[in-house]
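Issue 218. Parser rejects a valid record. Input:
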Amino acid sequence: MVFTMIFGTEDCDSCKIAVKLLDEYELSKEFVVVYVDAKAEETQKLCDLYGVDELPHIVTIDPHNFGHEPVFVAIGLEQLAELVKIMDNECEEEGKN
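Output the parser choked on:
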């Protein structure tokens, strides 16, 4: 299982698209998708940890990986397309098992 955080803001249209696009993968047992408000005071340490400076900023981590280093980072919708390809492949593999 992987854990994907979408860093965004309410007024970011690209962030809304990213959330809508990735929400469908939460139905899979392989992915957990969480929205993180990049403007919220309580999330600033997390934003700093993952170098969030552009939105949407998508970070995928493997919770079994000590230190929670990202296995994939996408900044903007164009890079998000690469993550979607990977997630589609994982979902296909899951369906074969």
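Fixed in the parser; the record now loads. Residues 83 and 89 are 10 Å apart (CA to CA).
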